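Section 5.1 Outputs to date
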Amino acid sequence: MELKVVEFEPEFAGKMNFYLELLDEQEKQQDDNPSIGIILCPLKDNIEVEYALRSSNKPIGVSEYKLTHKLPDKFKGKVPTSKELKQMLTKAIHNAGLSDNINDSTSNKNEL
């Protein structure tokens, strides 16, 4: 998945196709489903997207996103709060045994 901060450009599709080829060649196992590319942009022109993806042999989707300062009511209770996200990330890092690496890199930045 790629999150862009500019309007969709056709070269994004080519880059995503490259990433998917690399992923499938280097990481994908025989029993894995096909890799899917998702490009999120604040704006897109559907005709431009259609032509950019027409020759791609990989499943790639392009969608728009909208930033808001307040979580819409329909999503309250359905997505984690920032505090809950931080707790989930901290737990995942700890469970993966990476907490020492994170602490080391943080302390090194403070020493610079």
